[in-house]
């Protein structure tokens, strides 16, 4: 007895007790009817529901039964299932035996079954399967007789022991592989299939010893015991690491559990009139309406995917077995119509008879999704409203990347085709092995060289290299590795985890297919397919035909969209791009980027190169007093004014939200530890080191070592003054503008002078001045007053008024809680959910990668809260903030400008909580538009659903 | 016209318009009756309400009128007052003139008035006053004739021009001082009073020139213009920096505004039957029931406080003017009875006639407050329930500090008596001038030397020195300076801003009264009174009689207290102390302190000195794998177990809340920048430097330079791994326990083994295991499961169960928002409002001092949110957290363990939101108990108030 009790746990247990008698755990199917149906995915899983549905539709499905997901959840909770589950399973088995006229693993014609997992959402290959269950030392003989194929029988038994041993008894695979390989060596054979029945029987005996040794028990001869153990093992496999990771990536609830499907075995390997295959009702890569798939005769499912034998295109089956082929086409066509979506199916032919083993909606590329959706509407299969849900908004990017010209893909150039397609698009570039090298070689602007950063794995330290590289290739790491995640965020091509490529960063070389590549060598990577090729392969631009299809698709979707989509853009070039994608304004212009962005060369005449900008910015920061600060700010004024004028022109007529200076000032100065180390090193540095040091500080006015001795301590003193233990929570945002009001004044002046200048040129402006990091209404009042005063001053001086708003970025929990107060002073809210996530969770975004992997692996978090908004916590604050803000100011304009603005799930959330718009990076604008449209359409469907009730 | 409008501002304006006609702005008093009364402090201010009340009571008060606070608020909003105010003021003036039979500044007997501020709460000396208003070139002659004292008339006029010039026209004081001093020099006189009427008339002419030069206008001769200008200047003085600072410190709302009192002048300097004085109805320092005060004959108020003449004890007046004295005693006794509190009063005697100028509740020391309260209850003046509000909970500390033995205070030893009494208590110590020196000289434990850190001002860099010093003395900085704030928090004696002492930190000397003090010299400081004395003065321990009074007082208060008070204590010694002060448990034991606290020598036999502890802790952190980590943890286990056993014994029968490891691990290792610099310096260091470096790293096993070359890069590598950009938001709290479950296991094992051991010794335990930094219920479930499993293991092994709870520290916004979820797993909540304030505001506590001074000065924050809980933001999250947590678990135990737990206002808040207890540092326990009792009594009074209605 524990001294503490958890009342909730007790409640849960008693709830189960109550339910137990009423729960139907096991659903039979076979003989033309099923207990369940296709809608019962929650209980039966996708596979079980499909099998029931196909059975009910009279399709040839091997009979069996499905143990529903509640049994799995029970297993997770208590480590076992209730007796009721066992009882119902025995009943269903008896029914199956009666239907088949066989007994499980017994008699002259023993019933053999497969035991397969099947969750609500497809998780291909993640959980475990047992085939040939029911075989034992006795029934294997019966099977040999019955099939008249002793080798087939022995091989089936051998496979059962191996699968069962591995999956159920958790014996390492290699323990069996060693036995099998030794036998092949002994028999001097190469292929598995070369081992005859006698050899396989010897293997079986050895396998049994392996089981005994590792599991400390015999392989169970009782078929019923096999079945119970296999079922439980499948339940357990729901919790294995692969499955957990898959669910995390695909955002599948850990608590759903899997169903277990027990089904009479059919064999595709009984001879030349047997076979097995997989297929799609349409092409999943292009969406073309063509029967697509492959099969192998005299083979089992695993032979099709293992690659030992090359499968045959499914169209060949038409010649070989026209009846079966026609039956299959007929069935799958009916299935597509029935499910109103492209189907991904599996079938087996046993002695000339077709069996359907599975059907489900097929996965597809973005290109295929759109084509399918358009054509199915034309065919009258689905409505336009349904169609717009057929494209995952994240797949929009597939339409805009370069493609490999397949005509230029010669097999000898392909270094691997098994990398992970981590971030789409094909690129050609020169290899670099370090981030620093990437920065060095990539160059700037017109002289920019395409480089591909090749690493075993990338880390946050590589970010600067990833930013300048055209693409990233890694040899390790999965679909959630740093490289994969970051490049998808950047919209940059990436092939990750290409295991066939060896990267030796120290030797600065990459080896693949026996060839060695050094830095500077050209390669081509295709993040859409996961291929890596040597040399400069030809690329094709995005297909205009596809883009036209996407446009048509988006035109259908747009009317459903209720909330606006703006873009985060800091310079006119990005603003223009965003507008092309349909952005309806700028939701976030980060003015500090105007001082960092090295791609800005010159802006509107002689208003300052990036070097000038940084120099004056630093002069401003290093100033000891307001007067010197104002002098430096005066130099920055025309530069900012020109920036803003460019933005206003690019976004003519649309709102432009400009955030005042946000980052802590020390970000513009050298790092503290570098200065400390440089000072410590200076006196004893050799000539070369000294020269390098002078170079490092040339932009601060250092021309020789003498200068450094003066400069460095001075710089360090200021950096120390500005140093913060937690810069994220430090002297930044509106706190800068409050301590240095002259900065706010300069920025406001630049904004309003630019707006007036634009309007004088006939360009309509709509500036929204955004004060960052507001926690109290008094901060807002303080900064708002400065902005409004400067506006009036500029308008008076220039003799012209322009329309503008003053509002705030809501990015601190306190701001959400006192939003009613803040809305008295702020005319708009823009939720900065990046920072809001940091403070709400207490997660530093720069550091969270030390915590996140464990949290995701342990299931503590289902997803990275910086990627998709945390609805329960951060979202709750957003809800509170909107509600309270609009209580004060009912027409308060509300948007979001964190990176969540480009994440479909987050966009849906923003729609639900009643925001006016989302703002995201330009290349996510289409994604956001589609996600917003889907959210709007969902609302409409709900309302209509309600109406028809 | 602004292009943007603030609807709320418009609403406000129109509300004012509506109110204007109805508002009574001016309240007359005089002739035995007043428009207002003593209850109208909101409108009339304390002084105005007191004058009205005294007038109504028939006391001799010079007549006049009060312009109420709404006019001041109007002035703040719009920069002026409405015409209605002017109109009402002229009416009241006419009434006053009629009553006095005089005209303002006109005629043979001109009416002269004083214009004084008077806010709801007393703000002595913070705002401005104008005396003798109504004098001009003409009326000064009338006054001279009427008083038959030309020198008095000229001096009054001279003073008016000076005050008016400074206060109303904002002319620097020194401009007038220069004229006056020049005149004294010219006349070869020393004292002001030596200047005769002629000289003063010359001064007046010079003063007029000063006005003309600085204000570019003449001194106004129109008395009505003088009055309007003076009134507005008083309104403006509400907003001066001194007043704002005072309000901030005393937590007075900036929006209250001040009233203005215009009152007929009476003069104490008309000759030997005139005089002026101040007094208290009881002794404000001791609380003794004695008539206490001082006066001067033939003097004005400012002469009493300026110190030029030595005032006479008020008892002397009895001999000199027995009638007046008896009248004064009679009046003030009536006033004390009327106000039911000790009164602080001002009076003037003009030609033998007594006038009361002010009465208010007097400020008092903590000792006096308690004595007063006890005696007034005995006298039947107040009830016990009222009495318990008469001590500010923050003053409790006054009872526990050492006192100067006044018998040992010789005038020649007093270096200054005008320092700020920043943090109470008298201490004797040796001077040190730097924090490092303090650490070096202070020594440890038994060899501890008392040092007093003397600085111009302290900064956060000095904290380590402040910690070891026995007291702090600064020559600069006010009552909110770093030294003052930090020492109050530490409960350490401090005299701040002692301007008569010059500190030269570079020369390492302090000068006072012509004497030079070097480091090592002995001084005595008295933080209770602000005195600094040379040498070792005798100190007295806390007075047992006073402590007995306090006990009686607390015994009255305690029954009203509804919430518990626990203490934050990490070691048995502190726990015992807390229990002596009445702590009802430990609310926070920070287990990491057990590895830092250098005062722990040995614990329960040979279970590890502090050096051992840190060494194993570091070994744990430097371990590369779980195995090595577990080995180090095994060494730490017996040490922690002994710590906990000590705590359980000290708190026998009371709850002990133990927080699992919280800080980021890098806090236990050397600083990153130090390692970088040391590595850079190592190769070129000279012998001495090398030796010092080896010394620095000896505890990491360095015995020579050779070791360092290996060690430092290794250490740096680990420190780099652990480095975080924002440690506050980093890998700490439960995140450590989740990534390193073995740490949680070890700590849980130590707790439960200690609890079982204690119970076996017959000591009842009540452990509450607290998981820090929870953001999600899954974190809580993860760590809770480990703790509960280890508990069961220990109980099974030891054959004994103990009672315990597992709960969490709620210190992140997200935890408050999902408290309903978290309460499913947590059996108690303890709000960590330090961190919650950091994340809710986005303020790093380590860095906020760069922002806070500006924020407080600008009125953006009214108080430091780390000192007193921010009710609107942080408090709102606390409310949400409690409400949601109790929705799931109605009997959830809820407390607070941030430093707010010892702040009276925060304690009141905790009471209001229904917490079960507060926890604070041991020496704040009494403060918290009293604050909690006051909160409980307030509730009771409210309920009773409701009942009697």
Could you characterize what this model shows?
Two copies of one chain form a homodimer. The first copy, chain A, is of the alpha/beta class and about 950 residues long. Chain A has 36 helices and 32 strands. Chain A has an eight-stranded mixed β-sheet. In chain A, strands 25-26-27-28-29-30-31-32 form an eight-stranded parallel beta barrel, surrounded by six helices. In chain A, β25, α20 (about 570-580) and β26 (about 585-590) form a beta-alpha-beta unit. At the A-B interface, α24, α27, α29, β29 and α30 of A face α24, α27, α29, β29 and α30 of B.
| Biggest chain-to-chain interface with counts | A-B, 79 and 79 residues
Structural Rg of chain A = 33 Å
Largest sheet of chain A: 8 strands, mixed
**Structural class by helix and strand composition of chain A:** alpha/beta
Beginning-to-end CA distance, first to last residue of chain A = 51 Å
Describe how the helices and strands are arranged.
2 copies of one chain form a homodimer.
Chain A: H1 7-20, E1 26-30, E2 33-34, H2 41-56, E3 64-67, H3 69-78, H4 83-100, E4 113-119, E5 129-133, H5 139-147, H6 150-167, H7 173-186, H8 197-215, H9 223-237, H10 241-250, E6 258-264, E7 275-280, E8 292-297, H11 301-306, E9 312-313, H12 316-320, H13 322-339, E10 343-350, E11 353-361, H14 366-378, H15 384-387, E12 403-404, E13 414-416, E14 420-423, E15 426-432, H16 435-442, E16 451-455, H17 463-468, E17 471-474, H18 482-490, E18 493-496, E19 502-504, E20 509-512, E21 515-518, E22 522-526, E23 531-534, E24 539-540, H19 544-557, E25 564-568, H20 572-580, E26 586-590, H21 593-596, H22 610-622, H23 626-650, E27 656-659, H24 672-682, H25 687-696, H26 705-722, H27 734-739, H28 741-760, E28 767-771, H29 777-798, E29 804-810, H30 813-817, H31 819-822, E30 828-831, H32 833-841, H33 852-857, H34 874-888, E31 893-896, H35 904-912, E32 917-920, H36 925-948
Parallel strand pairs in A: 15-16, 16-17, 17-18, 25-26, 25-32, 26-27, 27-28, 28-29, 29-30, 30-31, 31-32
Antiparallel strand pairs in A: 1-2, 1-3, 3-6, 4-5, 4-6, 7-8, 7-10, 8-9, 10-11, 12-24, 13-23, 14-18, 15-22, 19-20, 20-21, 22-23
Helix pairs in contact in A: 5-6, 6-8, 7-8, 14-19, 20-23, 22-23, 23-28, 24-26, 28-29, 35-36
